[in-house]
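A brief tutorial aside. Many learners find it easier to grasp structure tokens once they have seen a single protein encoded end to end. The record that follows does exactly this for ABC transporter permease. Read the sequence first, then the structure, and try to relate runs of similar tokens to stretches of the chain.
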Amino acid sequence: MFSYYLKLGLRSLRRNPALTALMVLTLAIGVAASVSTLTILHVMSGDPIPHKSDRLFVPLFDVGPLAGYTPGEEIDDKQISYPDAVNLLKGKQGERRTAIFGIGAPIEPDRKDLGVFQTSGLALTHDFFAMFEAPFLHGQAWSEAEDDSGANVVVLSRKVAEKLYGDANPVGKRVTMLGQQFQIVGVLKPWAPMPHYYRLIGGAGKFGNEDELFIPFTSAVRNQVGPQGNMNCSGNPGPGLEGIQKSDCTWIQFWFETKSSGDRAALQDYLNSYAAEQRKLGRMQRAAKNNLYDVMEWMAENKVVGNDSKLSAWLAFGFLLLCLVNTIGLLLAKFSVRASEVGIRRALGASRKDIFRQFLVETAVVGLAGGILGLLLAVAALVLIAMQSKEMGNVAHMDWVMLVFTFVLSVFAAVLAGLLPTWRACQVTPAMQLKSQ
């Protein structure tokens, strides 16, 4: 019976192509507006590492001065100091741990045709790559021993590796950067999680491009590589990088990975004990709460999805609702002129349920057509949005989830809009219609 109703629906749509096109276009515009906005919101707010996001944690301490502090005041700092980062690394808590700060590194190629060029990257520990599942094209991460010794080793992005060596595997080669010789131990595949949840503070931004190189945290410190990104100092640190490292300036992001989400409480107890020990040494005198955030909590804390993005999504769905109201009006007009057809079908034995199914299938066909057109319009809208900036270009793309959602939303919206017109069509009295003919 469904195929029969589908044939009837298609024939009916062809009878008045102008009205059908207007309904499809109205629905498509509403779907495109809502889907394009929701797609960006979906990319921004989605869990970037769902299978372990509840096992990755960011610790935060309040190391500000006691003067002028009000108990319960929210911590503005979203990073930790160098002394705390070193102590947490030595504490060996969790399965893995890493400290992260941004660096800029000029590279001096051996090739005559390439001049010195600037790159941006991160200083971190070897655990970083396994924690955040960075995919390797060649080689692997450096070892724990190289972390401990501050070895001059580097992992390059594929983009930088190809710029320097073409398609060749560069693992084992040496590259001159930061005025030193660094041995290449690995090359990553293109990798830029959206958002950059592992480094939301400073750097390339929440939705920026991929990091170009990675060196050991200890190597960056040994080579006196200045940090790039946000830094917050409550007082004047001593001179040079050494002064910053000895101060309570916050400029390092830190992550723990635990074996299970249930280990969170034990990790929190460790942080509380650590803070208590530091207070005995004269630090952390505010005795504020020591915070611990998992991935999704960290994204919420840093407002990865702003209120303006949420408002845009609500406005887009409001526009879709307005389009549905217009579609309801068009369907009422279309079905009202077919009262005689309904009367004849009812007189020939068709039940109200049959009429209801026929007209509902017809509205579903309108929805499917609107979904196809809406998808094309949504993709065009995302292309235009992507042209606005590099960050928007990284988030304005449709995945298969949103692709399926587009058609589901379109058909659902059309069926919803068709309920009232279809119910009205079922109320036709056969005798009255036949008498009027």
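Self-check: Residues 371 and 406 are 6 Å apart (CA to CA). If you spotted this yourself, you are ready for the next section.
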